[in-house]
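U., I forgot to send this yesterday:
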Amino acid sequence: TQREGQPRLSVNPRRIEAPTEGMTRVITISSNVGWNRVNASSWVTVGATPPTRSPLTDTTLLVTVGRNTSFNPRIDTIFIRQNSGSLRDTVAIYQAGVSPTFSASSPRASASGAGDNSFVVNINANYPIAYAGVDRSWVSATIDSVSGVRYSFRVAPTTSGVSRTATISFKNTNGEAELIKTYTLIQRGATVSVADSTVLTRLYRAATGVIWQNGWDLSNPVFTWSGVTLTGIIDGELRVRELNLSGRRLFGLLVGGIQEPRVPLEELEYLEKLNLSNNPSLAGELPVDLFRLRYLKELDLSNCNFSNGAGGRNIPEQWGGRDSNNVLYFSELEVLRVFGNMLNGIIPVRIKDHDNWDKWDWERNIRPQKSGNELTAP
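Result:
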């Protein structure tokens, strides 16, 4: 315990923590000696020091900390010193810098399966922040530093129906480069065209899908259905590119019957390969409107039970026709197999005159039928 009359000098509090916007704080100096104060920074102001006299009662001073417009924290010290002696005490002032302001274009970072660059993060100008990166290669960033810092994130398309996530990270470049902000970006799985999935569902029902070998579960997404190959993203959707149901025990009619309407396979607009071969319970006449599949390269309907239609029609004449602009139907079709069915008679002249006739291999892939049936050329 300090003796009565012994020189003393102390200050309370000894530490002030000020927010970015600044503050005013009262400090109390307890002393029985004359003293003076010193502080070096212009951003801290202290009320006037009282006249030097002794003994003094406790004195209060008003300390005002100005607003910090810098992104960096700052420190100052107020020194209280005995006028003629060695006593001293200090007040340490710590003030935070401006905090980073993050502004995202949406409360939840998300993207469609088609990919987009709709997610944007803005950060207030000149803040010492570094973009720490994304943990997935399918997300890339573009940086624009004209006004503040703007990060635009591009999400690559996905061909999967399963959603995926990526983490976008930012760090403070001051000190230990701590991580200060993260966003979790969720990309929804790609969706299959409703039109295409509807056609496949109608085929499943018309061809008695419940008895298929390795059949489809219609409650699951289309991309899980065996034998279905999808395209990449086209106009924001996945489309059916290949349909291979060879030897899967399809049963029924593609051209419609009493229970089911016609299966509009021609509505699979981007179909390149169609293989329904080796399904002996698949019957009726050959679907006429397949000629509308302008991208079709391979058509295999061999070893089924297709037969002639009305008027003895075997291979639809339309398959060798042209549209109103004189563009040849099936112009991309390089493989045509209809052997091993119940077709008979003379094929249409248009079929034999088709530009791809030689590629189709008449003797091997078209002419041979079963049960005594046979096709002949005009």
